[in-house]
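Progress narrative, work stream C.
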Amino acid sequence: MNLFEKTSSHWVRYDKYEWREDDKGRLYITPTEKAKPELLEKPTIVWDFHSLLLAIQMMFSFMLTDQKSSMKVCKYCGKVFLASRPNTVFCSGQCKNQYKVYKSRANGRKADLTDE
């Protein structure tokens, strides 16, 4: 009898197992509390998309969230753009200027409110 035929993880094994019984009397084989895991091979994530569009959308979202990617989201308008430098946060000079204007106006309003 192969104890590992129905395990959910085929890439990790433990050095010690034990039989345990649940409330309904069913027996399970589980690793002991002091069991040491052994990694047999690196786990692989497999994505199974039902459409090409869904796969492209997933890759696009990964590119947007990757810090090392040159694809960024503009801090002002929220549009996606390809950054020429890693520290670029605005898609254009216009967005950068508008952001600075709104930020300075907001800071001016805060100063006016605290003076009153």
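Work stream C, second folded protein:
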Amino acid sequence: MVDRICYLYEQNQYDVDAIAHWVEPHIPAEPGQCVFVKPNMVINPWRNQEYRWVATVTHPSLIEATLIVLKTKMCGTGRVIIGDAPMARSNHDETLSLLRLEEIIKKYETNTFQIELIDIRDWYWKYIGTMCVSRKRLPGDPRGVKMVNLKSDSAFANKCNKNYEAFDDIQPVSEFHNEVDNIFSISASILSADLVINLPKLKTHRIAGMTCAMKNLVGINANKNCVPHNTCGTDAVGGDVCPANAQNVKDETKGVGGVARKILRKKMPWLNYCFVPVKMIYDLFQKEDHKRIGYGMWHGNDTIWRSIVDLNRILLYANKSGEMTDCVQRKYVCIVDAIVAGQGEGPLYPDPIQTNMLLVSSNPVVVDTVACEIIGFDWCALPFITHSFNQHMKYPLVDFKHDEIVISKGDETIKLQEVREKYSFDFAPTSGWKGHVEKHVQIEHET
């Protein structure tokens, strides 16, 4: 089992050499290996505002620093694959240009040290403004995908209401998650890797509460319909789309957006272009749209944590053929970009906050728990973390309790309960999590 230590480094700039210096001891790469690097390359609404997009995606300096260390440790031999399956509406080419990844790769690639850039997704949704007008089939992972079926070992197995929705669903999610099967479509490239390096951005998240190392693994799944994000209905009927008494609800199944989704399902996307002017006029009166609750974007979401926990177990225990085993199959390290983090309406509209940190651990549960403490969130309020401490589930993620986590900062050793005393960030949560996840709110309730 991976260890319980989180290493904390203070770093106030995106300095490639400095970052490489900090992370070098933690990357266990060897000559001739295949290494998969997983940044956060989510859709970026702030592509023309650098001070905003640095809080949205993994900064290219971390990717470049990782390549420098890998080339040295691998003695210039082997293969590095940089890949992600961002939101279906994310323009991959725009993101590559924004992060200068192709330019960075040319600096380090040789005949013996090969670097690939892959888009794991199987579909791209084209948007004009906030209106989806078409879908395009993508090549996907050049090595294909492996359909990993957790069946009754899935975190979804004991869930009564199985009427799931995926965020970008077109085909029924029930094809993959039902009374018998719980199937995920996993990148074969990541399963074939000897080492996986997870490079998440630390920020708030409307559906999960926070996104860091664990949530970043949603991007190893190719087919978006394999990742349930919420369950149909309000909490009054066993769903978690929104609270039954919610006042500011966003329902994507109705209105112009709902019509567009129905047209996409009927494979007549050209009709959606007719709705673009109507949607633009509608959006003029919805300036606070990104703060509305819907699609499971609140603290009562009882679905997304199950997808997150399952995907993290798959990464550790699934072999190259996509079969679950009893032993960890590959080396793994998480290097968190928390130099500039994101608060507020993440993951797409976060406000930048300078936290000046790099977090490193070989255990995603450890690093996410520590990250919660640093940003002033109560990790006990985030289901994907609390359920990850279940040592009795098959394919466990930890073999220790939360109070056994150790934070190493230079010569200093810090206990988890001491982190809050040393770092006093109070991140603003998303609208649907406000008043539920903040550490100071929990303390006030206790007193």
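The longest helix spans residues 60-73. No further action is required on this item.
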